[in-house]
Amino acid sequence: MSPDRYSALALPQPQSPAEERELLRAFLGGLEKLFRRQDNWTFLRPLLITVEHCVRCQTCSEACHIFTGSGRQEIYRPTYRSEILRRLYFKYIQHRRWQGAVELDWSTVATLAELAYRCNLCRRCAQACPMGADNGLVAHELRKLFSQEMGIAPKELHAAGSLVQLRTGSSTGMNPAAARDNFDFIDQEMTEKTGIPVKTPWDVEGADVLLIHNAGEVLSWPENPGAFAVMLTAAGVSWTLSSDLTAYDAVNYGLWYDDVQFARVALRQIEAARKLKVKRIVIGECGHAHKALTVVADRLLPSDLNLPRESSMTLMRDLVLSGRLPVDPARNAFPVTLHDPCNMARLMGIAEPQREVLRAVCPDIREMSPNRTDNYCCGGGSGFALMSGKTFLDWRLEIAGAKKMEQVLGAFAACMDPSIPKYICAPCSNCKAQFRDLLARRGLWKSNRIFYGGLAELVVNAMRDAKPGFLEWEWR
Ligand code: SF4
Ligand code: SF4
Q1: How far apart are CA 273 and CA 254, in angstroms?
Q2: For residue 384, how far is its CA from the centre of ligand 2 (angstroms)?
């Protein structure tokens, strides 16, 4: 049973009582594993805090953009799915009687599966909770249970995502030869556009930096990896890409739904860096890849794989503020607002380096409110920006994305005149996909000239050594 008229999953429909019993048996087996240390040593402690210590104060509800964006529908309360899980936990794991009624039938389980995909995993609710409970983690753990124990996961993340990445090298299906071809093409474009001769280096042993982009950029927003190539070339950085499978794609969708798939991808990415003996990995403009390759990889992978890793935000900050990339902010003379990807800002605390870059290259910055670690998710987080099946696109644009559009329109309120181009700087591939769809749905792209893009493009557009006019508005 779907909890509302939207749907993200192709759920099994039991055709007989025996089939239903089998599905429930698998679910309960997974539930036990979630609460067993040897099966869930990664996330058991915060999960227990969440199910055992919530005092039902509902402080978290007003922090959640999905709950408020839905007009405060009960099913979107951060605690709604957690309360079902909590009752199941007390009844079937703790065997306590008095914690509230819950019926374990397929309808309940199917509702939980869908509700696990009505949360962006942005953890804004967790930040607000006085007890340290994390309702985003509950959604994550439910996704994990359904994927690892029951084979239930959105096709965009699993069959067409992680599995494709492990098989071909990239979630886009781009194999290493195709990736190199695409970068050759990008290099030519960048050389022509900027006047700076660019040749992306591959598999350079001992390079200072192994740069890993979200490969979706290469196909959808090639100017972003192109801008990185221009910056690193012009600044004389020793850098390389890797052509090993999965190591030229920072994507790791397992972060959102399956620890096993997560570990398979992360392991290959780190091993590629070890093989090349690079000094550090730098993660491109991709929020979930930041979290995947740093804080979560640290939890899931053995410590001997603990290589230095850095955000591209700090690398750009160092290149610009040190003067290695001389810039002229007058070249970016248009209003710019900055979106803080949840994984970078709230989950990792990376909020200032990108602002230091912006202040150096843009004269007209208009902050959203709230921002930094209090920022709202774009509504495309946790894989939603990739998911459009059935009616899900409507849900992510009308409900999950409502708060973000309100923030953007608030930031640009004084410059909505369509003669003024405006730029949403979103240093994250998934956030950009959500902005693309949000702006198109509301017609703001054409009617009000609100565009979106990454941070690297703004830097290159301001570089004194590059030909002017790198940013082309028609790209958006
Ligand atoms: S804020 Fe924390 S304690 Fe209060 S209802 Fe939400 S999860 Fe429970
Ligand atoms: S993690 Fe984000 S989307 Fe999910 S319940 Fe919490 S605030 Fe809402």
Answers
A1: 20
A2: 13
Identify the residue whose C-alpha is closest to ligand 2 atom 6.
125
Distance CA 78, CA 73 (A): 11
The answer, yes or no, to whether residue 457 has pLDDT greater than 60, is yes
Look at the alpha carbons of 226, 228, 229, 230 in this order and tell me if their dihedral is positive or negative: positive
For residue 133, the ligand closest to its alpha carbon is: 1
Ligand closest to 59 (CA) is 1
Domain that holds residue 118: 17-150
Please give the order of strands across the beta sheet that includes 336-338: 336-338, 422-425, 450-453
Grade residue 103 by pLDDT with cuts at 50, 70 and 90: confident
In a domain, 9, yes or no: no
Structure tokens of 15?
A: 């055709």
**Domain identity same for 338 and 282:** no
Supply the pLDDT for residue 3.
61
DSSP 365: B
Looking at the structure, do residues 225 and 372 belong to the same domain, yes or no? Answer: no
How many CB atoms are located within 10 Å of the residue 302 CB? 8
- What is the domain-level CATH number for residue 182? 3.40.50
The reply to whether omega before 201 is within 30° of 0 (cis) is no
- DSSP class of 211: E
Q: Which residues, other chains included, contact 382 with Cβ-Cβ below 8 Å and sequence gap of 6+?
A: 119, 120, 121, 122, 139, 256, 288
Ligand 1 atom nearest to CA at 82: 7
Q: Quick one: 174 and 243 in the same domain?
A: yes
Confidence check: pLDDT of 1 > 60: no
Q: Are residues 311 and 170 in the same domain?
A: yes
124-133: average pLDDT: 98
pLDDT by residue (tens digit) across 236-251?
999 999 999 999 999 9
Instruction: Give a yes or no: residue 4 inside a domain.
Output: no
What is the distance in A from the centroid of ligand 1 to the CA of 53? 8
Residues 171-230 have pLDDT tens digits of 999 999 999 999 999 999 999 999 999 999 999 999 999 999 999 999 999 999 999 999
- Please indicate, yes or no, if residue 253 is contained in any of the structural domains: yes
- Give the pLDDT score at 445: 80
Asked if 138 contacts 50 with a C-beta cutoff of 8 angstroms, the reply is yes
pLDDT at position 353 is: 98
Domains contained in the chain, number: 3
Cross-strand bridge partners of residue 365: 336
Same-domain check for residues 109 and 228: no
Q: How many angstroms separate the CA atoms of 212 and 199, rounded?
A: 16
